[in-house]
Design brief:
This protein is of the alpha+beta class. The chain is 38% helix and 17% strand.
């Protein structure tokens, strides 16, 4: 994440508008989406990827194109993570990371706002910068969780919220869009129509039974939500079926490999990895790299299409949240091999799941 933040800040000053296609690829399918954004020095890719996914779902359903607030979800997520961390006496995850379901869980409780209603910035910077904020928030919850006198002072939460709002501001109770007045829940109901219950997260690891749900053991799944577990070939079939039917995908994966190349905006596996996979098989090698920490949940992005290279190899067109920093418009082209090995999980509409897989999983 530190490497990503340094890269994002280095690229922030570039503001030229570039194309969203790659000269080395032919687009097969491209789902209409919203402009690329920049998370800058804030490790909250989970909110940017999922918010982009929600904006795109609204377009798919014939709604207006909106610029929604990522930081609205980040604000409430920090409150929830702080309570969880203190409740477990510091034996829980507290940090910037999260998962796609964090946004869905927050929508159920709080709704959705526009970027204009809540930018999450009160300091005089043109980009998001959460480094100092996170340090200060972590100090508060650590002090609260390590109380020595046997009694937890309720003032810790007041202090936490005050510091959070000093950096991010307070989310609006009501806000206007044009001449209409909304609250976050009425805005979702009227303008976005996003029902979190229509969306499902999938993963593929053999240490749990397939076609059942389990609590995916990654640190950013701090809320311990369950994922449907399917064999890797079915996982890929869900993704391909989704794109073909016009459903985009909020993707969580590993971007730490040398084959994930920011200079070319492409990601592919090395010949060395492909040889190992040929010997072991994708499912087995996925498990090996998950258990030895070579595959970790580094980054969430938004898959919005497919393309092929000059050799006919399939790639997924993936919208990132590092701003428009190159001639490819802030998009990455990620090979099917890379996706097949390095996917931790993804979120998709339940109607994008092939019927026979849905029946195996008991999805209605």
């Amino acid at each position: 994440m530190k490497k990503q933040i340094l890269f994002i800040l280095a690229m922030f000053s570039i503001s030229i508008s570039f194309a969203q296609t790659h000269p080395d690829f032919t687009v097969l399918k491209k789902i209409k989406t919203t402009p690329v954004k920049n998370q800058a020095a804030a490790g909250v890719c989970w909110s940017f990827a999922t918010t982009s996914f929600i904006e795109t779902e609204a377009i798919r359903k014939g709604k207006k194109e909106y610029d929604l607030s990522e930081m609205f979800f980040v604000y409430y997520s920090y409150l929830n993570k702080a309570e969880d961390y203190v409740r477990f006496h510091g034996n829980a995850t507290f940090g910037e990371g999260g998962q796609a379901h964090d946004v869905l869980n927050l929508i159920k409780k709080h709704g959705i706002t526009t970027e204009g209603a809540y930018s999450g910035k009160v300091y005089k910077l043109p980009y998001h910068y959460h480094v100092d904020m996170v340090k200060n928030l972590k100090s508060i919850v650590d002090n609260a969780a390590s109380t020595k006198d046997g009694a937890l002072a309720s003032t810790w939460y007041v202090a936490f919220k005050a510091v959070l709002e000093s950096y991010m501001g307070k989310p609006p109770v009501n806000f206007k869009v044009g001449e209409s007045l909304f609250n976050p829940k009425s805005f979702n109901k009227s303008e976005i129509d996003f029902n979190p219950d229509d969306y499902i997260e999938f993963t593929s690891y053999s240490h749990h039974p397939f076609h059942e749900q389990f609590d995916l053991e990654v640190p950013d799944n701090w809320s311990h939500d369950d994922y449907y577990n399917v064999p890797i070939d079915e996982l890929m079939e869900i993704m391909d079926n989704a794109i073909e039917k016009g459903y985009s995908i909020a993707w969580d994966g590993d971007v730490s490999e040398k084959g994930f190349d920011s200079s070319t905006s492409t990601a592919d596996l090395s010949k060395k990895d492909l040889k190992k996979i040929k010997d072991e098989g994708f499912q087995k090698y996925r498990q090996i790299t998950f258990e030895n920490y070579k595959t970790t949940d580094d980054h969430l992005m938004h898959i919005v299409g497919t393309a092929k290279n000059k050799d006919g190899k399939l790639y997924y067109i993936t919208k990132n949240s590092w701003g428009v920093f190159d001639e490819h418009g802030g998009y990455f082209y990620i090979s099917k091999d890379y996706i097949k090995l390095k996917t931790i999980a993804f979120l998709v509409h339940k109607n994008a799941v092939p019927n026979y897989i849905a029946r195996k999983c008991g999805i209605k």
